[in-house]
């Protein structure tokens, strides 16, 4: 059975999708260093006495939790602020770009694009938000819940490997999107241009 070609384009491979995600992650991380750095520094200050004593006892083989220094009063609020800012930065970076063009900087670098499954049109804000919220929004807010958010994101990242035939991640299924690979010669061609530069158009009047 031939592989599906949504809008006349081949599906993006897992390697390209992963590389694009890592590029985007590096960019969002850099934004967080600039915007979120002070909050992280203050959080570490609040936690430092507690964790220093925990590590000291662990090195001595002491597993007792009695008498540990109290965690700073502002630690909880700072943790929530860090997570909320991280989610807001990610949303601002990804959702508008994906809504208008189906591409982030990482996707442009890897020549891939997120497209609606059934329509030759941009994703639009609602679909882009639903897509991002499945792997970015809600899971990021759950980072502080014993790593639950990170587990969800890990499962979502691997999910295209187990989906056939459209290689949809969980967030693709939520938003009814697929990720396609763009032609090397013209990565910005319209979605409704189904011509393949590697194929010769068929002329029904040509004799063979």
Strand content: under 5%
H-E string: HHHEHHHE
Q: Ends: how far apart?
A: 26 Å
Give the overall form.
Answer: elongated
Q: Spatial order of the strands in the main sheet? A: 1-2
H/I helix tally: 6
Provide the domain count: 1
Please, could you describe this protein's structure?
The protein has 208 residues and is mainly alpha-helical. Helices cover 55% and strands 5% of the residues. It has a two-stranded antiparallel ribbon with strand order 1-2. It is elongated, with a radius of gyration of 23 Å.
Question: Quick summary of this structure?
Answer:
The protein has 208 residues and is mainly alpha-helical.
């Amino acid at each position: 059975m031939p592989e599906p070609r949504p809008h006349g384009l081949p599906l993006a491979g897992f390697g390209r999708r992963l590389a694009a995600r890592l590029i985007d992650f590096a960019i969002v991380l850099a934004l967080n260093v600039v915007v979120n750095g002070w909050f992280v520094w203050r959080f570490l200050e609040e936690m430092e006495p507690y964790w220093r004593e925990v590590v000291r006892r662990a090195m001595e083989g002491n597993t007792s939790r009695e008498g540990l220094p109290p965690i700073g009063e502002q630690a909880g609020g700072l943790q929530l602020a860090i997570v909320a800012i991280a989610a807001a930065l990610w949303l601002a970076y990804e959702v508008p770009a994906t809504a208008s063009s189906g591409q982030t900087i990482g996707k442009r670098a890897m020549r891939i694009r997120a497209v609606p499954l059934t329509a030759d049109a941009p994703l639009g804000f609602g679909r882009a938000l639903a897509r991002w919220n499945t792997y970015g929004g809600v899971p990021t807010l759950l980072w502080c819940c014993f790593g639950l958010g990170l587990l969800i994101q890990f499962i979502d990242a691997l999910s295209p490997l187990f989906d056939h035939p459209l290689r949809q991640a969980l967030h693709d299924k939520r938003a009814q999107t697929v990720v396609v690979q763009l032609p090397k010669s013209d990565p910005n061609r319209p979605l409704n241009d189904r011509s393949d530069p590697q194929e010769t158009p068929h002329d029904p009047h040509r004799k063979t």
